[in-house]
Design a protein that fits this description.
Oligomer: single chain
CATH architecture: 3-Layer(aba) Sandwich
CATH superfamily: Pyruvate-ferredoxin oxidoreductase, PFOR, domain III
CATH topology: Pyruvate-ferredoxin Oxidoreductase, domain 3
Order of helices and strands: EHEEEEEHHHHE
Low-confidence stretches: none
Shape: globular
Radius of gyration: 15 Å
Strand order of the largest sheet: 2-3-1-4-5-6-7
Number of helices: 5
Strand content: 15-25%
Length: about 190
């Protein structure tokens, strides 16, 4: 079973992203679960969303405490939340972080991938300069970095177009751009 944890802020689309990713894997013929974890948080507060993917039905419920993959939609969360808590050895972390900036050392045994999702989102007019919507952009990077189980990029792009409420083509194009621009920063 693949366990995925997404960290975002309220309003950035982490919950929508979890549903899109689950739908893309479902199109691959896999069993999926997608669910959020938040309380009374308001727009801008830290939230988490989870996805489970397996080739057989899973009875597990609740938060994924030892994820294989962690997606970080907002770099400011690195100062608010320890995104590495519980990550399995060898986990992938996909981090939205500005191009050209030195990516922080998060410690641990993982593979860190970086994509400037804010820049890509702004280029496709997803959100505003103060609040870019990066969820689909980060999913594009995910599709390139995480290979097991395989996820056909076209299934992801279709799930994005089906799952976003507006700017469907722009979101899919932004994901394609992230797929091309994501880079591995370090792996141990």
């Amino acid at each position: 079973m693949l366990g995925i944890r997404m960290h975002g802020r309220g309003g950035q689309g982490a919950v929508v992203a979890s549903k899109i990713l689950a739908k893309a894997y479902f199109a691959e013929g896999l069993q999926v679960q997608a669910f959020p974890a938040f309380g009374m948080e308001r727009r801008g507060a830290a939230v988490a969303a989870y996805v489970r993917v397996d080739d057989k039905p899973t009875l597990a419920r609740g938060e994924i405490t030892e994820p294989d993959v962690c997606l970080v939609l907002d770099p400011a969360l690195l100062e608010m939340v320890d995104v590495t808590v519980g990550l399995k050895s060898g986990a992938n972390i996909i981090l939205n972080y500005p191009d050209g900036a030195e990516v922080p050392d998060l410690g641990g045994d993982y593979t860190l991938a970086q994509v400037d999702a804010n820049q890509i989102a702004l280029a496709y007019k997803l959100g505003s300069a103060l609040a870019p919507i990066v969820n689909t952009v980060v999913l594009g990077a995910y599709a390139k970095v995480v290979a097991d189980p395989p996820l056909a990029p076209e299934n992801l792009y279709q799930a994005i177009e089906d799952g976003v409420p507006s700017k469907k083509e722009e979101n899919a194009q932004a994901a394609r751009q992230a797929y091309q621009r994501v880079r591995i920063v370090e792996g141990k």
